[in-house]
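The passage that follows is intended for readers who have already worked through the single-chain material. We present the inputs for a multi-component assembly, then the predicted structure in tokenized form, and finally a short commentary. You are encouraged to pause after the input and sketch how you expect the pieces to fit together before reading on.
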Amino acid sequence: MNATVRAFLACTLLMAGALVQAEPRKASPAETAAIESSEIWAKIQAQLFGQRKIDPNTDSLIEFDVPARADDAAVVPVSLRTRMTATPERFVSRLYLIIDKNPSPISAVFSFTPDSGRADIETRVRVEQYTPIRAIAELNTGELYMAARFIKASGGCSAPAGKDAEAALANIGKMRLRVDPEVRFNEPNLVQLMVSHPNTSGLSMDQVSRLYAPAYYVRSVAVSYGGKPVFSADVDFSISENPHFRFYFLPRTPGELKAEVLDTQDKSFVARLAVGERSASAAPATDAR
Amino acid sequence: MLDRRLPPHAVLVMAALAFVCTASAQASDDRTGALAMQEIAAGIYVHIGAHEEPAAANRGDVANIGFIIGERCVAVVDTGASLAVGQALRAALRTVTPLPVCFVINTHVHPDHILGNAAFRDDHPTFVGHARLPAAMAAKGPIYQRALARDIGPAAEGSELIAPDQTVVERSELDLGGRVLQLRAWKTAHTDNDLTVFDRATGTLWLSDLLFAERIPVLDGSIRGWLAAIDELSALPARYVVPGHGSLNLPWPQALAPQRAYLATLAADIRQALAEGRTLARTVETAAAAERGKWLLFDAYNRRNAAAAFAELEWE
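Having made your guess, compare it with the prediction:
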């Protein structure tokens, strides 16, 4: 076989491989059954959405990316993207992230506005048991769509905080707010927000005291640009230690991006970033109490 | 190199055992249920754990553990991943010496080093560890016990957490009677509670999991801290080195080189990914791929190491 044919075959294989990887992994029959017959989900659905119809047309609107099996149950990357061009009349206003078998199944509610540019969010979560995991998109019109997957992981919520206990305590509230310095006006721009925080669940028992360490976690994130909301999140300890969020905002003119984080001890942490005047560089985080 | 103060019969016993031990398979027990030990220096016995994940077949015998004999008493260094392994270690100790066990040193919190502690409870030793070990054991111990029961089954029975009675903030010395061990507590590296033991009599540096050989290092602390610790370690003199996993006859300080290469490559790949704005999920698939052929259990641990390093380095 000559070199050209080999190269052609290699390219074809690579492309085929890439295409295969781009497809969401299909749930096994057992996993599909677990997703569809989940009692916990039935209760949560009633609680959040009453009798409203949810379109289970899983992947047409929502691109929902989770690993089939987690490497680290306490840090599971999840990605929710909505394939819809937002207009002021019809846009995704909320994304719900539900992890059925977590102690706190309603893991996050993300809110968006037309100034978000895209209703996309990437974050990292804790997964306590093998479980269905769901992304529900709610439009401003009230329409509801759901994508569901099954994830194999365990111990993420009852696993205690991280690898360096002293450093974690010393760094609570430090933030990183990053935007590409080459901001593009009138287009969605990616934002990365990181908060140093143990985000503990209160579910790991201290063997010495036989007491449960108190829960201490971030409960809300509010991001605005030029004073107008672009992204907010109601979250809890289902989010991993050192909460990390990637989302978008749609700037039309230079302005200030401001992120405010509130935790369960009512501490608030603020970061601000000047965008578009010159290269956007991260302003140092300020602690506001 | 024998310490002239050791009693002559102990010398003969040790010589005989050294012959027996080197002749037998390292991982298997003899008929008394005792772990096979290697005497790597006078009075220093090490058992090499299997390069496997804990499972019913190995009862969690996957780390290097052992003991050091003084004139007055014995210090155990790590006890294996289960009561069963700790008991097998104790049985081996008793075939070598009748001296009391005065110290059980846990080099760090990982289950394959601490869950055999209960085997020595009735010896009433002083349990010794890093100043941060009690908190780490309290936080992670129960998870480890549940994972152990799941991984090795009934052999896990009776495996208990025993926290240290005595902790080391920076340095400490333990006297075994004519034999002083120098303990050193490290800043966060492999974990946030790593302790090393140095025996001046023989120049033996027991690094435990600050050094991995043949089997992929496990990052559960700080990648930058571990690379800094490696730099400092390489300047320490040592005649014999005991890694937490892997062979015992390693040249020093060259023994550190493969591990330094792995961690440096991992850090470099991740910094590159961060500079390119790549996500965690994408990065862990390829980081340190160049190292795959060099380490056992690579696929079991590299992605986790990459995720840990990513979460650390993204704050730079």
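Commentary: Chain A touches chain B at residues 65, 67, 71-72, 75, 77, 79, 122, 124, 155, 158-161, 163-167, 176, 180, 190, 194, 196, 204-209, 213, 242, 244, 246 (CB under 8 Å). The helical segments of chain A are 3-22, 29-36, 39-49, 58-61, 165-170. How closely did your sketch match?
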